[in-house]
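Input sequence (281 aa), recorded before submission:
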Amino acid sequence: MPDQTQPEKPGRSLVPRHQPDVSALLLHEKRSWREYAAPGLVILLGVLAVVAFGLVVLTRGGDPEPAATAPGFDGLSDPVAQLPIPLDSPSPSVSPTPVDSIAIERSSVPDEGVDLSAEGTIDWVHWGEQGTYALERNANGGFAILEGTPGADRRRHTESPERYRWTGGSPLATGKGVTSGVQACDDGGGFTLSAPAGTRDSTLRLYVGVLAGRGKLQVSLSTGGKAVTDSWEQTGDSMKTAAYTVSYTASGTGKISLKWITEESFDGDCGGVSLQAATLR
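Predicted structure, token format:
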């Protein structure tokens, strides 16, 4: 019986083909997915970590607080965002409330005499050089020192142991070695003077005397306060003199009033107080 085996065609192998192993293919695919998924998962976790860190920083206020530096601008920061450093504001100075104040001091008149022009920088007055009712005063004093109405018992005297001088006076321009003044006789007689008063410190100096009597000085402010008084006497035959320094301050605009009166006369002819001069500064 003839051999029916087909002859081998040229160019073709007769080796049988093997079918691919399905389980091996699946294993290869699984390994390939794991190889790519692992690095991707690491990258994803890194990104999530960065995002989480950023959220934490934003939640805690942004950038870390910078170190404290001296106040000032570096040219980069926003001036509006910089808050001023609170400082204790100084307490405002409070001016003291002016009060009505009077202080008097009685002293002796200097032996060398008194220069009225030098002492009375605001005003000065001298009494009696040209007559019983005459007075000589600072030509530029503006009549700051004023005398009240003279009494009928007024007399002129030249018995002052001290001498007075001045320049720039009116109506008598100059005076030198002057010993004159005016005198009031009998009980209750005397002189009344006034001068401006205000909140600034002022000083009025009064040059007075007593002959055979007791004199009393009374000082008061029109703005209020308590009057201040002083009394002293002379029983001899010669005139005793004194200088009253009156320092005063008023609570407002007003005037100071001075009364120099004969509290008691020891001489029936003319015992009482005398007035020579006054200065204001």
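Checked by second reader. The helical segments are 22-59, 116-119.
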